[in-house]
Amino acid sequence: MPIFEYVCDDCGERYEKLVMSKSTKIACPKCESSKRTIQLSVFAAPANGAKASNGSSSEPSSGGGCCGGSCGCHN
Questions:
Q1: Residue 22 — very low, low, confident or very high, per pLDDT cuts 50/70/90?
Q2: Sorting pLDDT into bands at 50, 70 and 90, what band is 5?
Q3: What's the confidence (pLDDT) of residue 33?
Q4: What mean pLDDT is predicted for residues 16-24?
Q5: Looking at per-residue confidence, does 44 or 61 come out higher?
Q6: Is 48 helix (H, G, I), strand (E, B) or coil?
Q7: Of the candidates 47, 50, 52, 51, which has an alpha carbon nearest to the alpha carbon of residue 70?
Q8: CATH fit for domain 3-42, picks 1.10.3680, 2.20.28, 3.40.1130, 3.40.30
Q9: Contact indicator for 4, 17 with CB cutoff of 8 Å
Q10: H or E stretch including 4?
């Protein structure tokens, strides 16, 4: 069950909606308009199944930016 993020085209309110099916009615919680634009969701997930670090690891940080440098996009 995906959660989608929207911005209302009428009032500018940003909101999230759990969409169970294509027939789910989606309306702005502020003005109740059905005019909306879907937003790109931003989330974080560990790469390659690695566990998230809590800062107490003795391993050095890769400092590779957005992907840690392991994807080959950094030289």
A1: confident
A2: very high
A3: 97
A4: 89
A5: 44
A6: helix
A7: 47
A8: 2.20.28
A9: yes
A10: strand 3-8
Q: What is the pTM for the complete model shown?
A: 0.52
Residue 69: which residues within 8 A CB-CB, separation 6 or more? 62, 63
Question: How far are the Cα atoms of 7, 13, 33, 35, 42 from residue 17, in angstroms, in the given order?
Answer: 11, 13, 14, 14, 15
Q: Domain residues of the chain, as ranges?
A: 3-42
Strand order in the sheet with 3-8: 14-18, 3-8, 36-39
Q: Which residue type is seen at 9?
A: D
Max intra-chain CA distance, the chain: 52
Cβ distance 40 to 4 under 8 Å?
A: no
| Residue 66 tokens, joined | 């957005």
